[in-house]
Amino acid sequence: MKVLVIHNGKTEDNYLISGIEKYEKRLKHYLSIETLHLPALKNTQALSKEEQKEKEGIVILSKLQNTDFIVLLDEKGKQFTSVDFSKYLTQHMNTGTRRIVFITGGPYGFSEDVYAKANFKISLSAMTFSHQMVRLFFIEQLYRAMTIHKGEPYHHE
Predict the structure, then answer these.
(1) What pLDDT sits at residue 29?
(2) Per CATH, which fold does 2-149 belong to?
(3) How many CA atoms lie within 13 Å of 24's alpha carbon, on the beta-carbon side?
C-alpha cells in the first residue's frame, strides 16, 4: 500500500519541520510514503473563508486519483486510539487498498467538494491544534501505527 500525505501550504517552524522529517524518514522503512506540500494561496485577504476553501479544494482534487482512498484530518472525524489506528491501517493493507491519501486542510478546513470526495475523516483530538502542528502529530501517529503493526517496542501499553 502506498501512502500520500497532502498538506496545504508549507510548514514554517523549524522545530516542526525537523520533527516531521524525522518521522517521514523512519516511515520509509515500513511503507511507500510521499508527502506533497501544496502552495499556499496568495492574496487571501481579498477572499472569504469559503472562497479560500474552494480554491484550495480545486488544487487538492487535482492531485487525487479515482482509485484513492481519501482520509481527511478533520475535527469532526472519528477519533482512534493509537492501537485502533494501527488496526485501521492494517485493515487497508490487508484488503488491497492501493493508495491511501491523508489530507490536512488549511486553516479553515475543506471545501464541500473535498468533503464529498472523501471516504473517511479522522480527528486527532477533541482539542483544536494548528494545522501545522497537526502535520507533526499525524506523522508521528502514522509511524507509531506501523511499529504497532510490526510488533515493535516503540509503543508502550
Answers:
(1) 95
(2) Alpha/beta knot (3.40.1280)
(3) 15
Q: How far apart are CA 79 and CA 85, in angstroms?
A: 9
Q: Which residues contact 121 (CB under 8 A, 6 or more apart)?
A: 71, 72, 73, 74, 76, 77, 78
**Triad 101, 73, 128: Cα angle to 5°:** 160
3-state secondary structure of 98: coil
Residue 117 to residue 77: CA distance in whole angstroms: 15
How high is the pLDDT of residue 125? Answer: 94
pTM: 0.94
Positive or negative, the Cα torsion across 59, 38, 55, 5? positive
Cell numbers found for residue 18: 525537523
What's 11-77 look like in SS3? CCCHHHHHHHHHHHHHHCCCCEEEEEEECCCCCHHHCCHHHHHHHHHHHHHHCCCCCCEEEEEEEEE
Mean pLDDT throughout 107-123?
95
